[in-house]
From TrEMBL:
Presence of keyword Cytoplasm: yes
Compartment annotation: Cytoplasm
Broad class of the protein's primary localization: cytoplasm
UniProt source species: Aminicella lysinilytica
Protein name in UniProt: UDP-N-acetylmuramyl-tripeptide synthetase
GO BP terms, alphabetized: cell division; cell wall organization; peptidoglycan biosynthetic process; regulation of cell shape
Pathway assigned to this chain's UniProt record: Cell wall biogenesis; peptidoglycan biosynthesis
Gene: murE
Entry keywords, A to Z: ATP-binding, Cell cycle, Cell division, Cell shape, Cell wall biogenesis/degradation, Cytoplasm, Ligase, Magnesium, Nucleotide-binding, Peptidoglycan synthesis
Length: 482
C-alpha cells in the first residue's frame, strides 16, 4: 500500500506495515509515536528509523532524519486507528461483529456466539481464550490486543472465509482506544462489578470506559443489556447510540429475552425462554445461574443479528466446553473438581454460590487460588474472605505474581481467609498447590481451582513463562491419586 493512500498529500512510497513498538519495526513500516503508560513512543522514533521505518507519525517535535517522512498530528492514536483499518482493507465492515464487554462472562458469552452463530454463517472468536476461526486457534497476547493486531486478526478472519466475529472487549482496550475503528454491529454488556481499579481508580471511571462501546456503536447497530444488573442498566440505556434490547430473569422487571422456570443441576439447566411474547423450552449443558445469564446475552445478540431461535435451540443443548470456564474435571475420582477463571469478588461470589448448591449434601469445599501481582491489591483480602466463608480448606498459591513475591500476595489473601475462620495453607508452586488440594479431598467433596483456567502461561518478573493450565494440572494431580 502507498503512504499516500493512508495520508493525503504524502509521497507515493510503498509501505509494508504499521508499528507502535520500535522493537517490532520492519523495513518499510510506518511508526506511530504513541504516549503509553510506561513509555513515550517519541523517545524511540530514532530506533524505529534504524530498524527500517520510512515514515514517522508524531505529535511532539522530534529530531528528523534525511529521507524519512515525518507526519505531525495532534491525535496520533486516532491516526493509528484509522490507518490500521484502511491498511487491512476495513475488515470489520465485511463482518457481523459482536463486541462483548462487562466484568465477568465475556469469554463464555463470546465463545457461545462463535460456536452457535457459526451454524448461520462462519464466526470467528477473539479474546482471552484464543484467536480462533474454523479449525485454527492460537494463544492471544491480550484480551483486547492493540489496534494493529485487532485489525490484522479481523482481516485474517475475512481472508479465511469468516462472515462474523465475536470479540471480547476489555475496559483497558476501550479506554486505550484499541477498537475505535472497529465496525461493531452488536454490543453486549454482561455485568458491572468491582475490578481493574488499579488502572481505572474508581468504579465511575471503570463504567465510563465500558460505556465507550455503546456510545461509539453505529446508529443501526443493536445493544444487548443485562436488565438484572442494577449497577449498569440505567446508565447504558441513557448512553446507547443505537436501539437496545434486554435479557434477564425478571429480577428487576420484564426483559425482552427472559429465562423463566429455571431448573439447575450439576449436569445442566432447563428453563423457558420468553422472547417478546413467544415461549421456547430450553435445555442446555451449561451449569450455574451466571452461565444462564451468559447464554441469554448470546441468544439475544444472535437473534437480533438474524439467527432464528428455533435454529439455536438444538445447538444450545450441547454447547462446546469453554476450557477453564466451569470446566468439570472427571478422571474417575470420587470427588468433584471444577476449574474456573473467576478472579474477581463478584466472580467468586457466583462460583461459591454454585459450589454450595452442589455440596449441600455433606461434602466440603477446597479452593485453590492466588491473585495477580502488579494489579488491584485491595481485592486480595476480599477474595480470601469470600473463599473462607464457604470452604473447609483454602490453598493459596501463585497466580501471575509478576514483580511481587507470591508469599507477600499470599499473606494478604490469607489474612482474609483466617478472618473468616477457615483453615488456610500457602503452597508457592501452583502445580504443587493443586496436588495438595487433591490429596486433601474426601469422597463427595468439591475442589475448586480458580483464577487461571486454561491459560498456558504464568507472568513473573522477567516476563511470561509456560504453564500447563489449571485444567491440565488438575487432571495430572487426580491421576496420581487414582
Amino acid at each position: 500500500m502507498k503512504l499516500s493512500t493512508l495520508f493525503s498529500n504524502q509521497p507515493d512510497i510503498e509501505i509494508t506495515g504499521l508499528a507502535m513498538d520500535s522493537r517490532r519495526v520492519k523495513t518499510g513500516n510506518v511508526f506511530f509515536c504513541i504516549e503509553g503508560l510506561e513509555a513515550d513512543g517519541h523517545d524511540f522514533a530514532g530506533k524505529a528509523v534504524e530498524a527500517g521505518a520510512v515514515a514517522i507519525v508524531h505529535s511532539k517535535d522530534i529530531p528528523e532524519q534525511k529521507g524519512i517522512v515525518y507526519i505531525k498530528s495532534n491525535h496520533v492514536g486516532d491516526e493509528l486507528n484509522r490507518a490500521c483499518d484502511i491498511f487491512n482493507g476495513r475488515p470489520s465492515s465485511s463482518l457481523t461483529v459482536f463486541g462483548v464487554t462487562g466484568t465477568n462472562g465475556k469469554s463464555t458469552t463470546s465463545s457461545i456466539i462463535s460456536d452457535i452463530y457459526s451454524a448461520k454463517e462462519p464466526c470467528g472468536y477473539m479474546g482471552t481464550i484464543a484467536v480462533r476461526y474454523g479449525s485454527y486457534s492460537r494463544v492471544p497476547t491480550l484480551t483486547t490486543p492493540d489496534q494493529i493486531e485487532v485489525h490484522a486478526d479481523l482481516a485474517e478472519m475475512v481472508d479465511h472465509g469468516m462472515k462474523a466475529a465475536a470479540m471480547e472487549v476489555s475496559s483497558h482496550g476501550l479506554a486505550m482506544g484499541r477498537v475505535d475503528t472497529v465496525d461493531f454491529d452488536c454490543a453486549i454488556f454482561t455485568n458491572l462489578t468491582y475490578d481493574h481499579l488499579d488502572y481505572h481508580k474508581t468504579m465511575e471511571n471503570y463504567f465510563e470506559a465500558k460505556k465507550i462501546l455503546f456510545k461509539n456503536i453505529k446508529k443501526d447497530g443493536v445493544a444487548v443489556l443485562n436488565a438484572d444488573d442494577e449497577a449498569s442498566i440505567d446508565g447504558l440505556k441513557a448512553c446507547c447510540n443505537c436501539r437496545y434490547v434486554t435479557y434477564g430473569t425478571g429480577v428487576l422487571g420484564k426483559a425482552d429475552y427472559q429465562a423463566e422456570d429455571i431448573s439447575l443441576s450439576t449436569k445442566g439447566t432447563t428453563f423457558v425462554l420468553n422472547c417478546k411474547g413467544e415461549r421456547y423450552p430450553v435445555s442446555t449443558n451449561l451449569v450455574a445461574l451466571y452461565n444462564i445469564y451468559n447464554l441469554l446475552a448470546a441468544i439475544g445478540a444472535m437473534h437480533e443479528c438474524g439467527m432464528p431461535i428455533e435454529q439455536m435451540l438444538p445447538l444450545i443443548e450441547d454447547i462446546p466446553q469453554v476450557d477453564g470456564r466451569m470446566e468439570i474435571i472427571d478422571e474417575g475420582q470420587d470427588f468433584n473438581v471444577i476449574v474456573d477463571y473467576a478472579h474477581t469478588p463478584d466472580g467468586f461470589d457466583k462460583v461459591f454460590e454454585y459450589a454450595d448448591e452442589i455440596t449441600k449434601n455433606g461434602g466440603g469445599i477446597i479452593a485453590v487460588f492466588g491473585s495477580a501481582g502488579k494489579r488491584d491489591k485491595v481485592k486480595r483480602k476480599i477474595l480470601g474472605q469470600i473463599a473462607g466463608r464457604h470452604c473447609r480448606t483454602v490453598v493459596v498459591t501463585e497466580e501471575d505474581p509478576r514483580n511481587e513475591k507470591a508469599e507477600d500476595i499470599g499473606a494478604e489473601i490469607m489474612s482474609g481467609v483466617k478472618e473468616s475462620g477457615c483453615k488456610g495453607i500457602f503452597v508457592p508452586d501452583r502445580i504443587e498447590a493443586i496436588d495438595k488440594a487433591m490429596s486433601l479431598a474426601r469422597k463427595g467433596d468439591l475442589v475448586l481451582i480458580l483464577g487461571k483456567g486454561d491459560e498456558s502461561y504464568m507472568y513473573y518478573e522477567d516476563g511470561r513463562a509456560p504453564f500447563i493450565g489449571d485444567n491440565e494440572a488438575a487432571k495430572r494431580a487426580i491421576k496420581k491419586l487414582v
